[in-house]
Write a structure and sequence with these properties.
Oligomer: homodimer
Number of domains of chain A: 1
Radius of gyration of chain A: 19 Å
Order of helices and strands of chain A: HEHHEHEHEHEEHEHEEHH
Number of strands of chain A: 9
CATH architecture of chain A: Alpha-Beta Barrel
Distance between the termini of chain A: 59 Å
Shape of chain A: globular
Helix content of chain A: 40-55%
CATH class of chain A: Alpha Beta
Largest sheet of chain A: 7 strands, parallel
């Protein structure tokens, strides 16, 4: 048990800090995107904090997109989907339990359709969403995702393009009144040159666009992630917002004011990008 | 909170059942492979059970391979690696905490090297291991993993082959005295015809081979997963062992006896495969 009190203390501190972050931005953002790993590293205490923060964000009328990149074979994908997008029933028991009920979940496509469809089924049934990793924001995403597939003469496309085509098909049956489906795609803000091609390949997919800020994505290059309706993308930024108080620019501000100021600035950039997309 | 008592009751039942499974097989298997999703679907109570079962398996001298298929960009992969293969420290605090300390973890390669190396670094530092998904056991694994990559004239290979080559390189620096490294590969028992090629591509990798039993993998076709030393593979079977009491073959036996009998039978098959590989 050596060190378990340390994890509990860290989890307690994280909960206080992140509750403060939610309070600082709840009226100027539509959603929060917790990163599962940051809670898992603090053990059972950490994931208990995640559970409470999901509830707290919902009380503040925020959507919760859990960045957990889950993936597995069909029977196991069903268990993950129950955990995050659906509910758990037991034979003979009244009611159902919800483990970590979030509004959307990121998932990894390496296992193919049968590992993806259970998530999509739960999303459709319970009015949630999924974001499939297509082109991630990290430098080495090129290694696998950008490999060229030869599909006969004159036809070649990258793995990421192939996944994008699948996302488009997987979303066919869940298009809502704004024209977007329950099946979205993760596209790193660090690859703005590719956004237009992906927008064409996945016209009904919402894009989750991480990587602005600390990872190097530029807020002035976001327009091509949006559709011509000025919709279709959620720009996610984590470290550069929650740790804004460490930036020289916001030096001396209490952490909540620093986070709110940085979030406001990003929001203005996103609004410019939306307007640019709508006027293009 | 509706339904949370249901999850707690299910978690309690799971703990009793799975403790019984461990007791039934602890002296005839080297390792257990819990599936993270099955605990996550039972919420905080569920992952608390996982934490206790890891401890219990270690007390029974079993290795624990956590099947969690984690993956993310570098900074987040570090957090996952700390959670499962390393430890968590805090500035100024004495000691370190271990969230879910397992002996090996399955990981997904879709994000490329920078999302994989933090896991390998922790594995090397703390004497643990990773198993990288190469060719998974599910039917649709062909969709992405079997795509042919064109790498110039006359050279083409599948995505799974490409990942296998990476696994071989990633394992170079951690080869132990039996000739195997800390970096293993997941290869489904459902594709025995490909095992020989993968063995050639990854001579120093331990293979984690799931899919025997319920998923259709045949115990009589396992020899080519092993090296000529009769080592190099861990055959994993879950549902067909823990639910053995449901099989007509073991009808009427208490669940622990059914599980033990099924495990013993699988073990004999694995021993035949090892002998066949060593005599080939």
């Amino acid at each position: 048990m050596l060190g378990e009190p340390l994890l509990e203390a860290l989890a307690e501190a994280a909960e206080e800090f992140l509750t403060g972050v939610i309070d600082a931005v709840a009226d100027i953002v539509p959603a929060v995107k917790p990163q599962a790993a940051c809670y898992e590293r603090l053990g059972v205490s950490g994931v208990a904090v995640l559970r409470r923060l999901i509830r707290y964000a919902h009380e503040r009328d925020l959507l919760v997109i859990l960045d957990a990149k889950r993936n597995d074979i069909q029977s196991t994908a069903e268990a993950y989907a129950d955990a995050y997008l659906g509910q758990v029933e037991a034979p003979g028991a009244a009611g159902a339990g919800e483990a970590w009920p979030v509004d959307a979940l990121t998932i990894n496509p390496y296992l193919g359709s049968d590992g993806v469809l259970p998530f999509i089924e739960r999303a459709e049934k319970f009015d949630r969403g999924v974001f499939v990793l297509v082109r991630t924001s990290n430098p080495s995403s090129v290694e696998l995702q950008n490999l060229l597939v030869s599909a006969g003469e004159e036809d070649s496309w990258t793995i990421a393009d192939g996944v994008a085509r699948k996302v488009d098909i997987w979303g066919e049956t869940s298009v809502g009144r704004c024209g977007y489906s329950s099946v979205g795609a993760v596209l790193g803000a660090t690859f703005p040159d590719e956004a237009r091609r992906f927008r064409r390949l996945m016209q009904r997919a919402y894009f989750l666009v991480p990587g602005v800020g600390t990872q190097g994505g530029n807020v002035e290059q976001l327009a091509s992630f949006f559709g011509s309706d000025g919709l279709g993308a959620i720009v996610a930024s984590s470290r550069s917002l929650i740790y804004a108080y460490r930036e020289p620019r916001w030096a001396g501000l209490p952490f909540q004011e620093a986070t709110r100021s940085a979030t406001q600035l990003l929001r203005e950039g996103v609004e410019r990008a939306r307007a640019e997309a709508a006027n293009a």
